Amino acid sequence: RAWGFEPELASRMATWRREFEPGAAERLGRAAALIVETLVRRYRRRPSTRRPRFWMTYQNYYRSPDLLGPPVATALCIPYILVNPAVSAASRRTPFRPWVSAARLAVRRADLIFAMSPRDIPALARLRGPAFAHERLLLLPPAVDIAPFEAPSEVRASRRAELARYFPGADGPLCLCVAMMRLVAKLDSYQLLAAALARLGRPWRLLVVGDGPARPQVEAALTALPADRIRFLGSLEPQALPPIYLGADLLAFPGIGEEYGLVYQEAAAAGLPSVACQGPGPDFMVPPGGGLLTEPTPEAFAEGLGRLLDNPEERLRMGEAARRFVAAERSRDAFRRRLGEGLRRLTLL
């Protein structure tokens, strides 16, 4: 909309499957063919001024291939754009092999590709070649709306006072953890965080925002620590999160197995440094100079936490660097600029 287009949802068909079942895939393929036929007929009946200018698909990969976009875009002679696709060489050896081919076909058909993580670019570039990669393969990092996280010092002081009420008998810097409680990936991070906190020989407080099926295991890991230093807030709506960030001193979430980790950018927007573990998601999402990346061990993570707990000046310096980076590189304005750059390369603007 910012660039003058009106998005239209073409179809609600979802292809994602955890397991590949040939019969179900065949039925889905037949359904996709009918949807393609219907869409092409519908769009061709429209006046030329109301026909689609381009087709855009988010996240095409072997478990969730785009079966609609390539044939519709080809039939209508319009550009086909992919956002956040992935190419996995290992997936060729899975039962998903037919969809591996379908996902790769979509990547080969694309006129423009936006990758949302730098780790996806090498495989996409190999599949499309250096000329396409140079002109039509662009990095489009996830963005955060920074406006709700902008607040003067007196508002931050008020937020800190409000959060302090959760810890009537404890002192120390306030560590914030914001994450879903899932058995895959998230639980490992919570357990590592608990093990790291147990090694700290200085005051700290931990406020946990999140919920999910792994909550019993998360609580079991964290409740082994001093009860007066930990509070669980459960799941909160997005609009309730900025005041929580603004009242904390740092974000403490290992991020093991994270593909992205938007919480690091939200923390940065609020001027908080992050302590995270080295890995594809945190490496890309923790702003340069705006946090610490440690080895994925309780000892290393505890050392990183201790360093920031003991150094309020370093926390402030890192938090300010993080805020400046997100405002310049990961804000919605920066996202729009990158999106517009790609659309111009297709002469759509």
Protein described:
It is a single chain. The protein is α/β, with parallel strands linked by helices. 45% of the residues lie in helices and 12% in strands. The protein has 14 helices and 10 strands. The chain has helices at residues 22-45, 69-76, 97-109, 121-128, 130-136, 153-164, 186-197, 215-222, 241-246, 262-269, 280-285, 298-309, 312-329, 332-345; strands spanning 55-58, 80-83, 112-115, 137-139, 174-178, 205-209, 230-234, 250-252, 274-277, 291-294. A 6-stranded parallel beta sheet has the order 7-6-5-8-9-10, with helices on both faces. A 4-stranded parallel beta sheet has the order 1-2-3-4, with helices on both faces. Strand 6, helix 8 (215-222) and strand 7 form a beta-alpha-beta unit. The protein is elongated, with a radius of gyration of 23 Å. The mean pLDDT is 96.
Compact description:
Helix content is 45%, strand content 12%.
Total count of helical runs of at least 4 residues: 14
Q: List the uncertain runs.
A: none
First-last Cα distance: 12 Å
Shape descriptor reads elongated
Largest sheet: 6 strands, parallel
Q: Could you tell me the mean pLDDT? A: 96
What class, by secondary structure content? Answer: alpha/beta
Spatial ordering of strands, largest sheet? 7-6-5-8-9-10
Relative helix content: 40-55%
Order of helices and strands: HEHEHEHHEHEHEHEHEHEHEHHH
Number of strands: 10
Provide the β-strand percentage band.
5-15%
Using only CA atoms, what is the Rg?
A: 23 Å
